[in-house]
């Protein structure tokens, strides 16, 4: 039987590059031996996720996701719960494209990214589960999280590290510690923290040394806990993160773990909701448990 591939593309991503390249991408998939078709996402919530789940259940062998990290996250959430999951290919047309960066997928040429399917090199990637949702790159929470994700991509492209300083000047008065209990493979941390990260790859917000020892298929999260909310300390840690030296600082816990359980300890803030960021979007609220699903989805890679 002929293999089937479904292109799921975000029509507004990348200044509408996806729309202009649909025919070329489908042609490449046909060259690779697939019967190819396309689905254009809509404004309906979880449009990409619902379509990915539908075609996954229908037995499609490949789903090609064209869009930013948010679109790819939706597709992952669509197929991750299935017993039999199709392969995935990523055509990055968002702003940061952290996941594509980690998989060595071309980020400035959509057609070149699609041609990786012709090369046939794949890798089974770990997927994170957070409550009843899934993520492929990063889970984070705490007051400092907004600084990490709140910097516009245009600022990062033009200003680099200075963009974080400008955002920091706005955010620092709002950064505070929260008392939490974090239970992970090698121990328990109870106390104040301004943010924790669970990383699947080495690329976060365009920075490639935040998780310097990240592996893609070892079944382990990279866990970083930032214990301080002092603006001077945070600026210093951010400068150190450019070269990966922040993980040696006493204000940081850096370890690997297969799972993580996060509980809130400050009962005085019991009505305050603390969001969990999954791949750049809110994916629920604490408390929450996280599990690494080792080599859960197979991706075409560069």
Automatic annotation (TrEMBL):
Enzyme Commission designation: 2.7.1.-
Domain DAGKc: 1-134
Keywords annotated in UniProt: ATP-binding, Kinase, Lipid biosynthesis, Lipid metabolism, Magnesium, Metal-binding, Nucleotide-binding, Phospholipid biosynthesis, Phospholipid metabolism, Transferase
Example of a GO cellular component annotation carried by this entry: plasma membrane
GO process annotations (BP): phospholipid biosynthetic process
Cofactor or coenzyme needed: Mg(2+)
Residues annotated as signal peptide: none
InterPro entries assigned to the protein according to its UniProt record, in alphabetical order: ATP-NAD_kinase_N, Diacylglycerol/lipid_kinase, Diacylglycerol_kinase_cat_dom, Lipid_Phosphate_FormReg, NAD/diacylglycerol_kinase_sf, YegS/DAGK_C
Gene3D superfamilies per record: 2.60.200.40, Probable inorganic polyphosphate/atp-NAD kinase, domain 1 (3.40.50.10330)
SUPFAM superfamilies with a match to the protein in the record: NAD kinase/diacylglycerol kinase-like
One function term, GO molecular function aspect: ATP binding
SMART domains: DAGKc
EC category name: transferase
Pfam families, alphabetized: DAGK_cat, YegS_C
Family: Belongs to the diacylglycerol/lipid kinase family.
Protein name, entry field: Lipid kinase, YegS/Rv2252/BmrU family
Species the sequence originates in: Lactobacillus iners DSM 13335
